[in-house]
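Data card: per-record layout.
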Amino acid sequence: MDAIKAEVYDILKNAIHAAIAAGDLSITEVPDIPFSPTKTPEHGDIATPIALGLAKQARKPPRDIAKIIKDRIDLESHPTIHEVDIAGPGFINIYLSDEWLYDTLRTIASTQSEYGTCDKGAGKQLQIEFVSANPTGPINIVSGRAAAVGDTLVNILNAIGYKAIREYYVNDAGGQVDRLGESIDVRYRQALGEEGLEIPEGGYQGEYLREYAEAIAETEGDTYLQLETNERVGHFRDKGVAHILAQQKTALERFGVNFDVWSSEKAIRDSGKPEEIIGLFQEKEYLYEAEGATWFRMTDFGDDKDCVVIRSSGEYTYFVPDAAYHRDKYDRGFTTVIDLLGPDHQGHITRLKNLVKALGIPDDWLEISIIQQVNLVDAEGNRLDMSKRRGQFFTLDALIDELAETVGEQFAVDVARYFFLMRANNTHLDFNMELAVTHASENPVFYIQYAHARCCSIFEQGNEQGIAPKPIEAVSLKLLTEPIEYELIRKLAEYPSVVLLSAEAREAHRIPHYLHELAGIFHPYYNQHRVLDSSDMEKTHARLILIQSVQTVLKNGLTLLGISAPTSM
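The structure for this 569-residue chain is written out next.
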């Protein structure tokens, strides 16, 4: 469709230039020609309001301008266009010849799993950092949403020719992991019978830490009580981080997300790179001393207040390792870096961008998107509150377990991923558990998967009847004349554009929306029209090509989402 639009664009532009040369239009500059979607096939395949845009400059009514442009289009010289019509106040509706529809089917047949891909990215290296949950507790469903979105965006970007990688930044240094060590220490001592202990302020109350500490006490006894408090807490900190991080990796792998790179904040801090960042900022005079601390002049970059980068204790705030980490990303050669941050990081966006700018890195190098809150809704419509520190949260593993009880393990992952992806990143998401386990067509992911399974069943039935698909070159595609068949092919033709726009806009939700619309056309077609008809084998083979194309696009789209395309359901 993009190629068709480019061709029609040139035809319209040449028609306008011809009208100017003939004196029919008095304009000095031809603007870009916009296209708008048509409401129904009866209004054509492509529409443009260019005549309305030229009215003021040409000093003519839009409908008159539209007629002048139409009269300058030689349909015999442009077989791609079947008809040109003028509608409403001056819209030019373009009706394409049927051949472009058949060319769509030929393209799908020849490219198969590559249909929808392109080389727009030209092999440029991109990095998407996502999830990056503190290693202080299991992956919760908010991070699960980020995992689904980030993983899918990498797939989509790679589909259009980029070399995108998945990266997880482990926050294994700083105050939060110190409090983790302190919390495990309390639970460990409690497990050994010590009374009167409380989790320190800002510590972690979760049952997962109680169970972990009890397991340590059971297997290793009171060994660690022989250590000094600081040494024991430090040991539990490191041991706890390793344990929880391993659990996070396992949960993500179960969810179908495998990171290419795991980066460590501790490694960044130990590398000396934060000191380099401080030295660079000092050279550029972005730092000053006040109140015993070192401050960064964030106001020089338009922020409303400066920020502390080195506390009076000499400890770095998170700004310094964050700046060092992004400098490390830049040094690794990524042309673009995309950070997907949680809903509690909204205020961090401007400051992080300012720090990157202070490093001399181009403004457009770093993109930041917020993955908004997920509200898990129970059968009664109640939202469950989630807090890691209070231990009240729903983990990704628990979600998959609960779904799996009804739909099975593989479909549980499919359902979770689809529901996480079906809304735009910047909108809150209510995860409807009752709908998620529904096997009926109301469940959108099953609705799409069932469409793919139906396509597969048609070929299985054909095989049983001795009807084998023919090569597309041996099939008369002109036998596909039903309006719904045209509608299906038009929708199939949109797929490459949907993938491209999803990648460029960083909006993964466009893919599930498209697949649901495609399935919404296919299911009525399947119910209303017979594909395998031994009394009309020529039409049967034409329809098998159409079904094969629908099957291919459904599978390609589901693959981008990390969702299975079952052959039966």
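Known properties of this structure: The CA atoms of residues 91 and 390 lie 60 Å apart. Residues 387-392 have pLDDT under 50 and may be disordered.

See the next section for split statistics.
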